[in-house]
Amino acid sequence: MTPARLAARRPLFRCLNAPSRPRPQLRDVSYQHAPKPKAERLPDLDHVSIHRAEAMRRAHYIRRRNWLALGAALSMIAPIVLVRLWDVPPADAKDKNDKGSGGVLDMISPRPTRTDSPRAAVGEFQGKKVVIAAGDKIIAAPASSDNPTASDADTVELVETGTSYIPYFPKTIMLPTSSGPEEVESEAEYTLLGLGIRKVSFLRVQVYVVGLYVRTASLHILQNHLINTVNPTASALIPGEKEDLRKALLDPERSNQIWTSILSRTGTDAVDMAFRVVPVRGTDFKHLQDGWMRGIASRTDQVRQKQAELLRQQAAEQKQIALPKPVDEGEFSDESFGLAMKEFKALFQGRGKAPKGSVVLLSRNKQGALSVMYQPVTRTNKGEKMGEVSRLGEVTDERVSRLVWLLYLGGQNVSSEDARKNIVDGCIGIVERPVGTVEGMVQ
User: Fold this and answer.
1) Beta bridge partners of residue 415, listed in sequence order
2) Residue 384 neighbours by CB distance under 10 Å
3) Are 276 and 169 in contact (CB under 8 A)?
4) What does the DSSP 8-state code read for residue 64?
5) Is the pTM of this model over 0.85?
6) Quick check: helix, strand or coil at residue 377?
7) Which of 263, 420, 412 is nearest to 428 (CA)?
8) Where do the record's region annotations for Disordered lie (predicted)?
9) Spatial separation of the C-alpha atoms in residues 376 and 312, rounded to whole Å
């Protein structure tokens, strides 16, 4: 048989002699026995369900936390925005709203017809009932008085403060004073020039009500000083001059200069004045002391910085130049001022609480001496009862009283801007009349 014929028959013999089971190829064996990749494995269904449920629960609590945080923030911000931006309707609008229909409530239970005065005073003031007298004046009269008037000897004319905590301040007060060469103790009448509320923090929390009183016999002296500030040749100010005085008393620099000039006077040209401070909530003397001490320290630091700037300017010029000095060099750096501040601080140490309604009086005489008096208040079954006025002490250095007065009257940041504006209004009221006239007194 030729080789060609053998090559042609070879496939036939291979097919007849083929094995009964096909031989596996190496590629198939490796594919069947190799482990499958992780991505191709079937996941555990129970594990997937638990993981998904946990993720959904966590997302739910996160959303709930975020909404609660947003609600808490809005509940704190909304009252502040409403108090600062919402205008209080005027009294006339309130009366109109009161006269209007109350809807379903009025149909069920109609309100009685009001026959009293549209403006009425309620409450008490230092154990006396508060009523409206002739001329729409608010007075405090004894409970036994039937028809009290403002001219009665046992009545006190009141001024509204603008806060419901301490609603009224007396228009005049009597303070102890010494007169004559023998320094005989007596009482003198002081007239309210202006008042305001001391507020702290961005929430405008009310701390106390403060009012400036001027001795009635010294009103013409203060009147003369204020008039000479604008027009030294005038006996009263015209409307344009009054506006100039108002701007000067509200200006940080000018107000500081005007009141420093008035407070620096002694003798017959000095003005007897007093501050009446009444807390609107329970506090203590330590808190009041800290506020005054911080204010005084801030003022003295400003003076030192201004003086140092002037000295640096002089040194840069290499010569003595005529610069306006705010104070003499070292006015608040000597040892005597430090001792005076220690005396002022000691007046309030160990005094304890100053409850709501109690009275702290800071008086300044013609020599600039600062006297501190305190009148406590006690709660009884019949209401509040004012105690006896006690003297806490005195600081003779006039710089201390001058700095305390400037905390409320002059400078950039005063302790109560409302009090300063009200006091400025009172000053404008006494300069529109000739010096020394009865009509020039504060109304």
Assistant:
1) none
2) 16
3) yes
4) H
5) no
6) strand
7) 420
8) 17-40, 92-119
9) 50
**Per-residue pLDDT, 214:** 94
Give residue 22's identity as a one-letter amino acid code.
P
Q: For residues 285 and 347, what is the distance between their CA atoms, to the nearest angstrom? A: 9
- Cβ distance 363 to 370 under 8 Å? yes
Which residues, 6+ apart, have CB-to-CB distance to 321 below 8 Å? 313, 314
Report CA dihedral (215, 218, 221, 226) to the nearest 10 degrees: 20
Q: Judge contact between 392 and 277, C-beta under 8 A.
A: no
Task: Show me where the domains of the chain are located.
Answer: 193-440
**Cβ(178)–Cβ(171) under 8 Å?**
no
pLDDT at residue 102, as a whole number: 47
For the domain made up of 193-440, give the CATH fold. Chalcone isomerase (3.50.70)
Structure tokens at 258: 């005007």
CA–CA distance, 352 with 392 (Å, rounded to integer)? 13
Q: How far apart are CA 425 and CA 260, in angstroms?
A: 19
Residue with tokens 């109109």: 96
Residue 279 φ then ψ, to 5° = -65, 140
Contact partners, residue 227, CB within 8 Å, separation at least 6: 234, 235, 236, 237, 431, 435
User: What is the distance of C-alpha 393 from the center of its chain?
Assistant: 28
State how far the Cα of 252 lies from the Cα of 326, in Å rounded to an integer.
14
Alpha carbon of 229 to those of 239, 241, 242, 378, 422: distances in Å? 15, 10, 11, 45, 19
Q: What's the confidence (pLDDT) of residue 105?
A: 45
Tokens representing 129 are 């009932």
Pairing of the two strands 168-170 and 172-179? unpaired
pLDDT for residue 236: 80
Q: How far is residue 78's CA from residue 167's CA, in Å, rounded to a whole number?
A: 27
Q: What averages of pLDDT result for each successive group of 10 residues across the chain (443 residues)?
A: 56 50 51 50 60 88 94 88 65 47 46 41 73 82 79 84 88 81 76 92 86 92 90 84 91 91 88 93 88 89 78 68 53 84 90 88 92 87 79 92 93 90 92 65 46
Q: Rounded to an integer, what distance in angstroms lies between the CA atom of residue 24 and that of residue 32?
A: 11
Beta strands in 342-405 (DSSP E): 353-354, 359-364, 370-375, 377-380, 383-386, 390-395
> Residue 260, CB half-sphere, CA atoms under 13 Å: how many?
14
Q: Which helix (H) or strand (E) holds 224?
A: helix 219-230
pLDDT of residue 18: 52
